[in-house]
Amino acid sequence: MIERPYGGCGTCLLGVRRLSRVKPATSSPERLRENVLAAVASVDAHIIGWADDWEVSDATDPMTHPKFGPWLRDENGPYDGLVAAAVDRLGGPGGNRSATEDAVRASPGLSVFDPSE
Prior knowledge:
Layout: E1 12-19, H1 28-42, E2 46-54, H2 68-72, E3 81-84, H3 97-106, E4 110-113
Parallel strand pairs: 1-2, 1-3, 3-4
């Protein structure tokens, strides 16, 4: 099973999805989910939760994202690392690489991105 509760096994990952704009006809959330699940499967890990931030600009610091921020601030429980479809899905001020790197460093350890992106 690719989605299950935290078990302390070292491969319990937080799935991160962010979109600046979500339109009724978009399939982006589903595509991001498929990409994240493929990345998780490629490293024999599993998802313990999702940080889905919709309508959140990449100009927003990841620490302040409504769903992702609490995980980074250790408010939502333990996890072993992050998984996202691409680094830019984590966000950061205007795509600012240093804010994104800070977000990755704030996670416990393992960071996985979909290799096809």
